[in-house]
Design a protein that fits this description.
With 241 residues, the chain is an alpha/beta fold. It is built from six helices and seven strands. It has a seven-stranded parallel β-sheet with strand order 3-2-1-4-5-6-7, sandwiched between helices. Helix 1 crosses helix 6, helix 3 runs parallel beside helix 4 and helix 4 packs parallel to helix 5. Bound molecules: NADP nicotinamide-adenine-dinucleotide phosphate. The site of NADP nicotinamide-adenine-dinucleotide phosphate has 28 residues, from helix 1.
Length: 241
């Protein structure tokens, strides 16, 4: 299998790449920025060499993503799975701001750019290779924060971005399901759990490894029971909208 993971330089993205390589898959790792020689993705490259293809890809930069897609095309003719994993959480749970008057519009915009628009840019650029695969799977990493919960206003921008990625995903799912010849393409929005990563360290409950194991079960169709609902967590359990 050939898989693309965005935001692969740390956290869940790095773990998905590492696990895919261990499984013998050809992995394509999209990274934002790897300034230091000793970054973990580079260590994996040394170990796995040709099995790991690294592409610079700021998911908010359509031209950069299109260039990455062209590079991909020089080496591969199809793509079995995409994990749209790159994400940002630019607020802290300790921020007690007035979400109307004190809203940082730049922060709000950046959050939506990365978490919501980014996956759409990546899917648009890589869809020809998904169409060329036998039983492809698209995973858009969402969050429990994206559901229209009962109360609270913490992580406002992040929650909006994750709710929006769910709606985007649902529309694309509908399009695929209703378009002859595309019905076989699976798409899930997945809450990966509260992970011990740079982003999740404040509330962590699980390791990114545990989450990645679950996500591969979804991709490989080995999750049992495999729920036929679009918004699930890394265990395959239905998430509330
Ligand atoms: N951690 C949690 O508890 C949790 C819970 C629910 C959902 N999630 C979601 O799970 C996904 C992975 O989160 P994580 O915990 O692994 O976060 P993380 O450790 O902060 O890693 C996020 C990754 O996204 C990359 N990234 C950020 N902006 C990017 C851009 N514009 N283009 C390309 N890559 C970009 C980062 O690159 P750099 O390393 O260069 O900064 C990093 O590799 C995210 O979508 C997140 O929203 C996480």
């Amino acid at each position: 299998m050939i898989g693309l993971v965005t935001g692969a330089s740390q956290g869940l993205g790095l773990e998905l790449v590492r696990m895919g390589l261990e499984k013998g898959y050809q992995m394509v790792a999209g990274f934002l920025d790897i300034p230091d020689e000793d970054k973990k993705l580079k260590e994996l490259k040394k170990q796995y060499q040709e099995q790991l293809f690294m592409i610079a890809m700021d998911v908010t930069d359509e031209e950069a993503v299109n260039r990455a897609s062209q590079k991909f095309k020089e080496h591969f003719d199809h793509l079995d799975f995409i994990v749209n994993n790159a994400g940002v959480l630019l607020e802290s749970k300790y921020d007690a701001y007035d979400p109307i008057k004190e809203l940082d519009i730049g922060m709000f915009r950046n959050t939506l750019e990365v978490n919501t628009v980014g996956p759409a840019i990546v899917l648009k650029a890589f869809i020809p290779y998904i169409y060329a695969a036998q039983g492809p799977c698209i995973i858009n990493i969402s969050s429990e924060a994206g559901h229209l919960g009962p109360g609270g206003y913490a992580y406002m921008a992040y929650s909006v971005s994750k709710h929006a990625i769910n709606m985007y995903s649902q529309k694309i799912r509908n399009y695929l399901a209703e378009t002859p010849g595309k019905e076989h393409i699976r798409l899930y929005m997945v809450h990966p759990g509260r992970m011990q990563t740079l982003m999740g360290k404040e509330n962590a409950q699980i390791s990114p490894k545990e989450s990645a194991e679950g996500i591969y079960k979804i991709i490989e169709k080995t999750m049992n029971p495999m729920l036929e609902v679009p918004f699930i967590n890394y265990k395959g359990e239905q998430m509330p909208y």
